[in-house]
Write a structure and sequence with these properties.
There is one protein chain. This protein is α+β, with helices and mostly antiparallel strands. It has one domain: Mitochondrial biogenesis AIM24 (Double-stranded beta-helix). About 15% of the residues lie in helices and about 40% in strands. It is built from 5 helices and 19 strands. Strands 5-6-3-10-13-8 form a 6-stranded antiparallel beta sheet. A 6-stranded antiparallel beta sheet has the order 11-12-9-16-19-14, covered by helices on one side. A hairpin with a 5-residue loop joins strand 1 and strand 2. The C terminus is likely disordered.
Length: about 260
């Protein structure tokens, strides 16, 4: 194996975290801001690119960092090394309510494609790159633009998703239609395209957008019930106008403002 062989355990239900067990000299890479805790003897190092063998030399590291910019991530990634004898643990937390999904890249043919913000951490040696859409419709209307993230190698990787997750095994030619924001990721043999919903009433009054994601097997697809963008939109929509949080705009809320002197006219 080119990637470090790591053991792991996932804790929690709604707000999960993954604990990675590192043997001496083993390492794991993670996105900035996902770190939760670590044992004594774990050394943290910020690096360009992803630390895989693809990033050889200075130019390779610059190109690796550049790929991360295109996916909307930071220039840097953090590596955590076990520098002592014996096993040591380091943990990473999901950034919002949902699930952490372990992906064994050896079972995915060495490649897994996911949303740009889905990656959480992986064994050192896993390559984190970009997957360009070759279809104009998918790039313009797919929700993720022309670029998705790809994880390559023969190690373990971990992605996170919002809400409850579903794993669908598609047979050859079998098709699944999904809201574009609900896709977590899929194996490399899955054909991903965009399909117009159709119908004037559906398009104008359906409230589900104009396009579905069309996923065709063979392969494995992971779906999330609560994309972060949907959660954020609901939170923003529920905020009271003008920053007034009393009564959410109701008559009683207005009377409360008058009684406590917080009347703005």
């Amino acid at each position: 194996m080119t990637a470090h062989e790591i053991d792991y355990r996932i804790y929690g239900e709604e707000m999960q975290y993954v604990e990675i067990e590192l043997d001496p000299q083993e390492a794991v890479i993670a996105e900035s801001g996902s770190f939760m805790m670590m044992d004594d003897g774990i050394k943290m190092e910020t690096i360009f690119g992803d630390g895989s063998k693809k990033d050889k030399g200075f130019l390779g590291k610059v190109l690796g960092a550049g790929r991360r910019i295109l996916t909307g991530e930071s220039l840097f990634i953090t590596a955590f090394y076990n520098t002592l004898e014996g096993k040591r643990n380091v943990s990473f937390a999901s950034p919002y309510p949902g699930k952490i999904i372990p992906i064994d890249l050896t079972e995915c043919g060495g490649k897994f494609i996911c949303q740009k913000d889905a990656f959480l951490c992986a064994a050192k040696g896993v390559s984190i790159g970009i997957e360009f859409s070759k279809k104009l419709g998918r790039g313009l209307f797919g929700g993720e633009g022309f670029i998705m993230e790809k994880l390559e190698g023969d190690g373990m990787a971990f992605v996170h998703a919002g809400g409850t997750t579903a794993k669908k095994e598609l047979k050859a030619g079998e098709t699944l239609r999904v809201d574009t924001g609900c896709i977590i990721g899929f194996t490399q043999n899955v054909n991903y395209d965009i399909e117009f919903i159709g119908g004037i009433k559906n398009s104008i009054f359906g409230g589900e957008g104009l396009f579905f994601a069309k996923l065709q097997g063979p392969g494995t697809v992971y779906i999330q019930s609560l994309p972060f963008s949907r959660l954020a939109n609901r939170v923003i929509a529920s905020l009271p106008k003008g920053g007034n949080s009393k009564g959410e705009g109701s008559i009683l809320g207005g009377l409360g403002d008058l009684l406590d002197g917080d009347n703005r006219f």
